[in-house]
Amino acid sequence: MAENLIQTFVDCGVDVCFTNPGTSEMHCVAAIDRIEGARGILALFEGAVTGMADGYGRMAGKPAFTLLHLGPGLSNASANLHNAKRANTPIINVVGDHATYHAQYDAPLASDIAGLARPVSHWVHSSPNAASMAADGARAVAAAMTHPGQIATLIAPANCAWDAASGPAHAIVPPPLAQPGESAIADAVSALRSGRKTAILMRGACLMEDGLELAGRIAEASEARLMCDTFHARLQRGAGRVAIEKMPYFAEDIVDFLAGTERLILIGTKPPVSFFAYPNKPSWMTPEGCEIIHLATPEQDGIAALRAVADGLGTKPAQNLQPLTRPELPTGGPFNAYTIGTAVGALMPENAIVSDEAATSGNGCYGPTEGCPPHDWLCLTGGSIGQGLPLAAGAAVACPDRKVICLHGDGGAMYTVQSLWTMAREKLDVTVVIFANRKYNILQVELMRVGAGNPGPGALNLLDLSNPDLDWVKIAEGMGVAASRAEDQDAFNMQFADAMKQKGPRLIEAVI
Amino acid sequence: MAENLIQTFVDCGVDVCFTNPGTSEMHCVAAIDRIEGARGILALFEGAVTGMADGYGRMAGKPAFTLLHLGPGLSNASANLHNAKRANTPIINVVGDHATYHAQYDAPLASDIAGLARPVSHWVHSSPNAASMAADGARAVAAAMTHPGQIATLIAPANCAWDAASGPAHAIVPPPLAQPGESAIADAVSALRSGRKTAILMRGACLMEDGLELAGRIAEASEARLMCDTFHARLQRGAGRVAIEKMPYFAEDIVDFLAGTERLILIGTKPPVSFFAYPNKPSWMTPEGCEIIHLATPEQDGIAALRAVADGLGTKPAQNLQPLTRPELPTGGPFNAYTIGTAVGALMPENAIVSDEAATSGNGCYGPTEGCPPHDWLCLTGGSIGQGLPLAAGAAVACPDRKVICLHGDGGAMYTVQSLWTMAREKLDVTVVIFANRKYNILQVELMRVGAGNPGPGALNLLDLSNPDLDWVKIAEGMGVAASRAEDQDAFNMQFADAMKQKGPRLIEAVI
Known about the structure:
The structure is a homodimer of 512-residue chains. Chain A has 512 residues and is of the alpha/beta class. The first copy, chain A, is built from 20 helices and 18 strands. Chain A folds into 3 domains: 161 residues, Rossmann fold (3-Layer(aba) Sandwich); 132 residues, TPP-binding domain (Rossmann fold); 175 residues, 3-Layer(aba) Sandwich (Rossmann fold), CATH 3.40.50.970. The longest helix of chain A is centred in the first third of the chain and has 18 residues.
C-alpha cells in the first residue's frame, strides 16, 4: 500500500517527491501527506517534474522520487528522463497505473507503460500486488543508487496502492562499486610515462573536487591534458580547484582540439564522437593512430582509478590550481552573450550553482566564470532542450543555501516554462537569465552545416521565434516570478547585481 | 531524400506540417520550404505539435504530418499522440534520427526511437536508405488513412534525408473499408424489434451528420436510445441534427444512465467501463443480463451498418431533429461554469468548432449549447490533459473560415500553453476560455472518491494551482495573444460577445 512505499522511501533517505499526480496516484499523494519527513513539490507539467528530479539528484547525490500519472504522465516526463539517464542521475519514478483488474478493459488512459519506460530507464518493474510494493520500492532505491546512478521506474497499479499490506520494507544495499582492472591501471601509468602526448577524458564523479585534485596531480607529473565531455552532468570548478578543458561542440572544433593526441585515457566515458553526423564529415573524433585506454568504465570507480594511477606515478598534491580572477564588469558598449557572461563572471557569488542551457550563448558565459569563487556547473546532458529551468529548480531544492543561476536560451526555456511557477511557489533562490535572441540560433547555424542549401523564408520561419516576440517578463510574472528586461549592458548589470543580492526567484530577459 | 518524401506527401494531399525540428530534420525543413504546396507551422513544444495535428486531422478528415526531433521530440509529442490514437485521428509522424552510420556511436541524443514510438503508434517503420524513403512515406500515408484512422510513425535517419534518390513515390490506396457482418446486422435488427429496452452506443464516423441521421431513423422506428462515449473525437450536433445522449463520466452515474438497458448495440466502440477503477466499485458498466451486440467494430464501416439496419427496419427519414433553442444570456447573479456555458450557448456562432477540455467545468457548457446552430464538438479522447489548446489551433488551421472556441481548465491548459504562440503567429481564429478555478478540481473530487482518507494540507497543496495564482492574461499576452480577465458574468458576456465578433486569437480568463 502507498503508506508502506512512501515510508520505505523516507527510511532510505529518499524524502523529496516532485510530482504532477492524477486519480490513480491519489493514495500516494495522501501518503506523502501523512508520512513524516516526506515532502511533495508540485510542478505543472511532468517534463518539469523530471527535470527537477535531475537537478536535485545531481546536487543531493541521492535520488528524489517522482510521482507520474500513467503512460501519458511518463511520456511527458521522458525527454528529461533521457537527459537524466545520460547524466546518470539517480531518480526513482513511481508511475501510477490502472488497478490490475481494470487493465483488461482498455480504458482511455491505458497504455503500455513498461514499453514507454524502458527506453528512458535502467530498471523497470511493475508491482504485482500491495504486499510486494514496499519491497519493490526498496529495490527501486537500490537500483537508482547503483553506481554511477540510474533511472529506476516502478509502475504502481492503483489497487497496489490502496490494498492493505503489512509494513515498510528494509533498505537494500546497492551492489558494491566495481573496481578498475589492474591491467588498465598499468596501461594508463605506462601511457603517462611514455612521453607521448596524452589526454585524460573524464566523466561522472571524477569531475568533483576530489577527483579533479587526483587528476591534477597526474597532469602535473605527466604533462597530460585533462578534459571533460562537452555536456557534463556536474563539474566543480572555479578558484582553488584543478581546471579541466571542456571538449568543444562542433565536429571540426573537436578535431582541432584533439589534434596531436597520441594516447587517450578514458574514465567513465566513451571515445568522443560528433554530436550529430554531417554529410562528408567524420563522426569518430579520436585522431588516427591515437591509442585509447579504457581506464575505468562508467560502472567502475573512477576516483579509485585516478588514485591508483596517481600512486603509480608517485605524484604530489596538485599545485596548479585555478587562481581567483574575476573579469571587470563591462559597461556600455556591445550587449551579447559574451558581455553578459562577463558580467555573470564579475558578479556571481561564491558557491553558486549554474544550470547551463544557454545553447549558442553558453560559450559566452563559460570562459569568463572560470576564475570565479568555487561553484558547480550543470549541463544539458542528453541534448533534449527544456532541461535548464527545472534542473535549476531541483538544484535549489537540494541546496537551499546556495544561489542558483540558470542561463537559458529562449527556445529551450519555452519547453518547460511551467517550472517558473514551482520556483515561485517554493520560493527557490534561482536567478534565470533568458538569452532572448528570438530564434533557434543553433538550428540556423546547423541548417548551413548539414548542407541543406540556401534556406528560404519558409525554412527560416520554422527556426525563428519572432512574429510574435515572446515577452518573457509577462510570461514570468504570469507564473508569479519577478522579472525584468535588459536591452543593454548597463541595465543587465544592474538587474543581475540586484538579483544576486536578493533571495528568491527572479528572471531577467536579456534581449540580444 | 527529403524532397522526395515531402513531394510524395503533397502528392497524396498531405500538405500541412506541424513541427518543432532539430538538426537531424534540417533537410526536411529545407524541403518543406522548396516543395510547392507544403506548409510548415512551427509550435514551440512537441506536445503542441501533435495536439495540433490531431485537431487538424479530426476536422480535415486527412492527416497532417509532424516533423519531430529524434527520441526526445517524440517523447514530448507522445501524450497527445496517445489522445490522437484514442481518437483514431490520421496522423503521420516523421521522426528524425541520427544518420544510420552514426547510430553505433551512441551520441547523446541517441535513443530507442522505435521503442518509444510503438505504444503511441499503429504503424512504425524506419527508412533504411534514401532510395526507399519516398515509398515509405507513401506507405505511411496509406497506414494513416486506413479506417478508422491511424497514427503512422516514420523514422527518418538524417542520411536518408540528405542522400540523393530518384524521385517521389506514387500514392498507395489504403485497404478497402471492412463491411459489418450479415449476422451482426440481423442480430441488431432483431434486438431493435424485440420490444426490449435497447441502446445504440456509437463512435467514430457515425457521429457525423449522415450517421446521426441514420441512427435517428432507427431510434424513431424502434424507440432505441442513441448514445455516444463520454469522450468522443468529433460530434456534429446542434439545431437540425439528430441529438444523441452522452455517457456520463463517473461510474455511478453511468450505472444510473444505463439502468434498465436490455440490449446494447455497439458501433465502432467497446462496452462502457469506468474511466478509473475505484475500491469496491465495479469497472464493468453494462447492466447485468443486458445482451451486447457488436454491430460494427472500429475497423468496419459503421455508416454502412447503420444503413443496413435502417433498411432492415424499413425506416423513414428522421423527423425528431434538434430544434433551434438558444438560452437567454445570463446577467448579474452567480458566475460559474454553468452560467459561462449558458453565455456560450447564447452567443456561439453557427458552424463553430468547440475544443472541450474544460474537465469539471465542461458539463456546464455541453447542455446549454445543444440547441445552438450546427457545430462540431471535440473532446479530450485519451485522458491525457493538455490537448484542448493545440487541438483548437489545429482545427483552426483545417477550417480557417470557422470560429473555434476552446473551453479549457486551467490545470490542463498549462501543459501545452506554448500553443498560444502558434495561434498568434498563424493568426488563428480561436477564442480560448480558461476556467480558472485555480485547482485540479477533478483530483480534489477523485481524492475523496478513491477512499484515500481525509486529505491534509500537504495533499491538497499538490492538487492546488494557487500560491501563486496563474495570471492567464499576462501569460497569453507574453505569447502574443490578446487577453482579458472576467470576474463576473457581465464582464464575461461582454468579452465573449466581443471575441465572437472579431477574428483572430483571443483568451478570456474566467475566474470562477
